[in-house]
């Protein structure tokens, strides 16, 4: 009787481990694909281009005054 319970418990655990390996494997594949897509955008210069375009909006008529204020202190 104890052997049957042990066998049933062991088969349940093996099924759970298989599901856990499947979930972790799918997450790992998703992370690798995401990093590959990010690397492709970096190589294209898309991220740098967005940063430059965003920074150009920050410079305006008040920039010269702000820089002067910073340099005074």
Walk me through the topology.
Elements: H1 2-44, H2 46-58, H3 63-72
Describe it for me?
This protein has 73 residues and is mostly helical. It contains 3 helices and no strands. It has helices at 2-44, 46-58, 63-72. The longest helix has 43 residues, at 2-44. The mean pLDDT is 76.
In brief:
The chain is an all-alpha fold and 73 residues long. The chain is 90% helix and 0% strand.
Observed structural traits:
73 residues; elongated; mainly alpha; 0% strand; single chain; 3 helices
Proportion of residues in β-strands? under 5%
Q: What's the number of helices? A: 3
Q: How far apart lie the N and C ends? A: 83 Å
Name the helix and strand elements from N-terminus to C-terminus, one letter apiece: HHH
| Biggest sheet overview | none
Which regions have little confidence, pLDDT < 50, spanning 5+ residues? none
